[in-house]
Specification:
Structural class: alpha/beta
Number of helices: 13
Order of helices and strands: EEEHHHEHEHHEHEEEHEHEEHHEEHEEEH
Distance between the termini: 42 Å
Largest sheet: 7 strands, mixed
Radius of gyration: 21 Å
Helix content: 25-40%
CATH superfamily of the largest domain: Type I PLP-dependent aspartate aminotransferase-like (Major domain)
CATH class of the largest domain: Alpha Beta
Strand content: 15-25%
């Protein structure tokens, strides 16, 4: 039977029936190590008992009431995020793209309340990915995501990633903000230099602009910090997050300083489902685990150990692996061969990794993965590399 789904995905011929921590079990009963975690979403792995209990307990009480009323779980989650970060305020969405839309609107409204209605331009960077809405594809600037959808949403000025002179040249009286991923995910696990981020902060302060961090993929412990900005020593005014905060449940949001959010008053923005009781129960359960003493330190330790193992893999298979990069449990394996071939070989070895730009395979295992499970993942990548090497040797010259 042909699929009734609109064919916007090139899906692998593989379906899963259930998950247990870092493992996925296919319909055929085969076990796969999930080093993709739903693209950095399943931060605590599949069916984490604490998250499952929080969700099911809440499901027996109340699912949805809308934001016309108080939602105590949302107040609690917002306070916890504020207490753990630079921010004063939070807003909850259903996804990362919606969080970025909120961040963009917040930055523009900040200037509009001062009567600067034409100050809505935002500087963005080559290789960025901020979502699939009409505004966020314009912010990302990738032609393959923009083409065919009509005129590009105005107000986004793209410059080279890491080029501070290009940023300075792009600033005009209409520039409202700078939007950046501290580590580009889709762009190939490319980390910004701390000095570059510090220079962006200084430019924003000098010109009265806001600094927005897209931490949809890097947030909630992924890089060995609660949010990646901590590791760079640079504080944004607005931060968008999602993915790991919901452990698979649709949840995202924005945190901001009170000053940056000054224009976002009653009626300026809204969401039907964002911040509903189910999502808030899950978000609070995730923070119970991630913010527990020592948890994030363990992510950093495990990430360093995994990176060292991957560097050794590169040394053993230099014709396949070109390099390793990233922070914490957000790592990228750059390959000499097409990354799609590497991803397919890994899948054959029953370990799932995610392709990205710059010929990079992303490794985004659950933050709860054990040392033994991480080592097993590398052993399976070793088998994948060996199979790829054998295939190269058999290929005609």
């Amino acid at each position: 039977m042909s699929s009734a789904l609109i064919p916007t995905y090139a899906r692998a011929n593989l379906a899963f029936e259930r998950g247990e921590g870092v493992w996925l079990i296919s319909e055929k009963g085969e076990r796969y190590l999930d080093f993709g975690a739903g693209i950095a979403v399943c931060s605590l792995g599949h069916c984490h008992p604490h998250v499952v209990k929080a969700l099911t307990d809440q499901a027996h009480k109340l699912w949805h009431v809308s934001n016309l009323y108080q939602i105590p779980g949302g107040e609690r989650l917002a306070h916890r995020l504020v207490e753990a970060t630079f921010a004063d305020l939070a807003f909850f969405t259903n996804s990362g793209a919606e969080a970025l839309e909120m961040a963009i609107k917040t930055a523009r409204k900040y200037h509009a309340v001062e009567g600067q209605m034409d100050r809505y331009h935002i500087i963005t960077f080559e290789g960025a990915f901020h979502g699939r809405t009409t505004a966020t594809i314009a912010a990302g600037g990738n032609p393959k995501y923009i083409e065919g959808f009509g005129p590009k949403a105005p107000g986004f000025d793209k410059v080279a990633f890491g080029d501070i002179k290009a940023v300075e040249a792009a600033i005009t009286p209409q520039t409202a903000a700078i939007l950046i991923e501290p580590i580009q995910g889709e762009g190939g696990v490319r980390a910004a230099e701390p000095s570059f981020l510090r220079a962006l902060r200084a430019l924003c302060d000098k010109h009265g602009m806001l600094l927005i961090f897209d931490e949809v993929q890097t947030g909630v412990g992924r890089t060995g910090k609660f949010f990646a900005y901590e590791g760079f020593g640079v504080t944004p005014d607005i931060l968008a997050f999602a993915k790991g905060i919901g452990d698979g449940f649709p949840l995202g949001g924005v945190i901001a300083t009170r000053e940056a959010a000054r224009g976002m008053t009653a009626g300026t923005h809204g969401t039907t489902y964002g911040g509903n009781p189910l999502a808030m129960a899950v978000g609070n359960a995730v923070l119970d685990v991630v913010l527990a003493p020592g948890f994030i330190d363990e992510v950093a330790r495990k990430g360093l150990a995994l990176r060292q193992k991957l560097a050794a893999l590169r040394d053993r298979h230099p014709a396949i692996v070109a390099g390793v990069r990233g922070e914490g449990l957000m790592l990228g394996v750059q390959t000499h061969i097409p990354v799609a071939d590497f991803v397919a070989a890994a899948r054959e070895a029953h370990v799932l990794v995610i392709p990205a730009g710059d010929n990079v395979a992303r490794l985004l295992p659950p933050l709860t993965a054990s040392d033994e499970e991480l080592a097993e993942g590398v052993a399976r990548l070793e088998r994948a590399c060996a199979a790829l090497t054998a295939k190269q040797e058999k290929a005609p010259a």
